[in-house]
Design brief:
Length: 681
């Protein structure tokens, strides 16, 4: 009996001691981030049979568990990831929003000033000072476009790249430490008894997982040995057991200034799988999303506006006469300058040999803020797709041959406003290319003329008319591109008895046209056609382009006559005070020339600013919402896992009293044993 009561007292003493230790541990870590309150669980030991009964044999510690709710923890991880995603997006979008919307850094005021300067020329076309103001404003507008490109491309995207590199480094450090803790937890779990997990190691690991969720959305799977497998985003494995798979920062295969996220199961392997699209949630997901869905499209939007703006004034200059009576020259650098045309296509770094493409912009109203992909398929076709992977056109091997030297035929990519040819053909199956028609547009715009006399305010010398036009199709000169063309309508090319005139004859189907002289004789091949009429109905004729607006019924006949000669071809005589062409330029202030003919210059820019503002505000609302949800989730988790000092103080007293009582049991057992010894002496 003495042994039984002594053992009972010792077990109670030991249990109370562990309770005091655990309570003290809770109190000491009440302010430790990531600590989960620990609880001692006791159970009675199996009784000892004695004289037909079972006598109690004290207590034992069955477990020391941490107060942890897996669901609450997962809720915190998710809301934390989403908050950081939206907060990261909001911070970066706000910066762009402030830049674009500011009148001192945006383009709206520059465009307004430009048309004010055009108006000055219309009022006083012979005054050189008005023309000087026009050129000065034109240069300022070009520089504003240049500065916008530099700010967004170098500063905003530069910050994004730096954040990507810093974040990936931090994530690799965290994943490495989590994998290390996995190993320590596996060892501790294997040597500890059932019910005694390594709680403090688990807390440390969960804290690191929580920190990792700030960078990307995470999911975990607990294994029997206490370790976890961890994935991020759409299921990208980052940690498996004690092995961490590091992320890497890689250069985009087309544009080395754009960073991608790579991964390889073998550290240091040269070939990495690009997994940027699999990154979701967290600040890393936020910066990638804001780069791909806002910053890059904004740069392309600015380029689209810059190209359309430059093209509009260049074309209108070509359709006028300057103060010397000569045909107007380009105000800005030609948007189809050969070097610019070549720079609009990027080869994949995986292509074995470089192939050069020349991308010409032939209709700026059809330009969008999209890039286009090209790939050579297994049949040798060149397939062009948009950003949604929709096929726009497939060029056959025969088409590719026609686009290459020596013919260099330009072929249209339907609905995009661009056409391409291949000056240097080294195509091979599997080659990939990226077409960026507008990306550098805001960077490339540059004033070309300095002489105010070259401002083409007067009307041109060409007159259009209809011989047969049952559908009342409108005929407009789109641009004069090459008066040196041997078939351009003038007296030298069409001497008497012919008129200095060419005729555009539409076939009966309304799908093709041919070029004739005034006598109805087709021009020599290939100048005479027939040619296909493109969807936008902007057709090429010798030395110029002509726009047909309306529904062609077929068999239409239009004439273009040079009226810059002797009677009867002198209906459009030059006068220095003529402001006809300047008035047409002024009309572009309110003319819807962009985005498929739906927006003016100012409206297109306002649409961009509005879009950025909506993204910014939406991100802020989402960030505030997830911040509230995160706070609620953290409160619920703290209610389960947090240390309550009042409760722990009560536990301290309870275990202290239990300890004293158990000690008294041992004392009583000792006194009883001494009494027995005295009785037998």
């Amino acid at each position: 009996m003495g042994f039984g009561i002594l053992g009972t007292g010792v077990s109670g003493l030991a249990a109370a001691q562990k309770g005091l230790d655990t309570t003290g541990h809770n109190i000491a870590n009440a302010n430790t981030k990531g600590f989960n309150r620990q609880t001692v669980e006791q159970q009675s030991t199996v009784g000892i049979p004695f004289g037909g009964v079972f006598l109690g044999n004290g207590t034992q510690i069955s477990s020391i568990s941490r107060a942890f709710n897996e669901f609450s923890f997962s809720e915190v991880l998710y809301n934390q990831s989403q908050y950081n995603l939206n907060n990261s997006m909001t911070v970066n979008a706000s910066r762009l929003d402030n830049f674009l919307a500011d009148t001192d850094t945006g383009i709206t005021k520059s465009i307004e000033d430009m048309f004010d300067a055009v108006n000055g020329v219309t009022e006083e076309p012979t005054i050189v000072s008005a023309r000087n103001v026009f050129l000065s404003t034109a240069e300022s507008t070009a520089k504003r476009f240049n500065n916008m490109f530099t700010e967004v491309e170098q500063q905003h995207l530069g910050n994004i790249n730096q954040e990507i590199e810093t974040t990936v480094s931090a994530m690799n450090e965290l994943s490495s430490r989590i994998a290390q803790l996995n190993g320590e937890i596996a060892v501790a779990t294997s040597v500890s008894g059932s019910g005694f997990p390594p709680n403090d190691l688990l807390d440390k690991r969960d804290l690191l997982v929580s920190q990792l969720s700030e960078y990307a959305e995470v999911n975990t799977l607990e294994l029997p040995d206490g370790t976890i497998n961890l994935t991020i985003g759409t299921g990208l494995t980052l940690i498996t057991g004690t092995f961490a798979i590091p992320l890497s920062v890689e250069r985009n295969e087309f544009d080395t200034s754009t960073l991608e996220i790579g991964i390889s199961a073998t550290p240091g392997a040269p070939n990495k799988s690009i997994v940027t699209d699999q990154i979701q949630g967290g600040s890393l997901g936020g910066v990638i999303k804001i780069r791909d869905d806002l910053l890059l499209p904004s740069i392309r939007d600015m380029g689209k506006m810059s190209i359309a703006y430059a093209d509009t004034f260049n074309r209108q200059q070509s359709l006028g006469r300057d103060l010397n009576g000569d045909e107007g020259v380009n105000l800005y650098k030609d948007i189809n300058d050969p070097q610019l045309a070549l720079s609009r296509t990027l080869n994949s770094t995986n292509n074995p040999t470089v192939t050069d493409f020349s991308v010409n912009i032939n209709n700026t109203s059809l330009l969008t803020n999209q890039d286009y992909s090209m790939v050579v398929d297994s049949s040798g076709n060149l397939v062009v797709t948009d950003q949604d992977n929709n096929t726009l056109v497939t060029f056959t091997p025969a088409d590719i041959t026609a686009m290459s030297p020596p013919t260099n035929t330009r072929m249209e990519i339907p609905g995009t406003g661009i056409d391409i040819n291949i000056p240097n053909n080294n195509l091979a199956v599997g080659d990939k290319f990226l077409i960026r028609p507008t990306y550098t547009g805001a960077r490339d715009i540059n004033l070309e003329i300095e002489d105010p006399n070259l401002v083409a305010a007067a009307d041109n010398y060409l007159e259009t008319a209809s011989v047969n036009n049952p559908g009342n199709v409108e005929v407009n000169l789109y641009e004069i591109s090459n008066i040196a063309d041997t078939n351009f309508p003038n007296a030298a090319n069409f001497p008497i008895p012919l008129d200095p005139q060419i005729r555009v004859v539409v076939d009966p189907t309304g799908t093709q046209y041919s070029i004739q002289n005034s006598a109805g004789v087709a021009l020599g091949a290939p100048a005479g056609g027939p040619f296909n009429i493109p969807a936008d109905q902007i057709i090429d004729v010798p030395g110029m382009r002509v726009e047909l607006k309306g529904n062609l019924a077929g068999n239409e006949v239009f004439t273009i006559t040079n009226q810059d000669g002797a009677p009867p071809f002198d209906n459009k005589k030059f006068g220095q005070g003529d402001n006809t062409n300047a008035l047409t330029m002024l009309n572009y202030q309110n003319k819807k020339t962009l985005d498929g003919g739906t927006n003016t210059f100012s409206e297109s820019y306002a649409e961009l600013v509005t879009y950025v503002g909506v993204i910014t505000q939406s991100g802020k609302i989402s960030a505030d919402s997830f911040q509230t949800l995160l706070a609620g989730a953290e409160e619920r988790m703290a209610a389960v896992s947090g240390v309550n000092l009042d409760e722990e103080a009560a536990n301290l007293i309870r275990y202290q009293q239990a300890y004293a009582a158990s000690a008294r049991i041992i004392t009583v057992a000792s006194e009883t044993f001494d009494t027995l010894l005295q009785a037998v002496r």
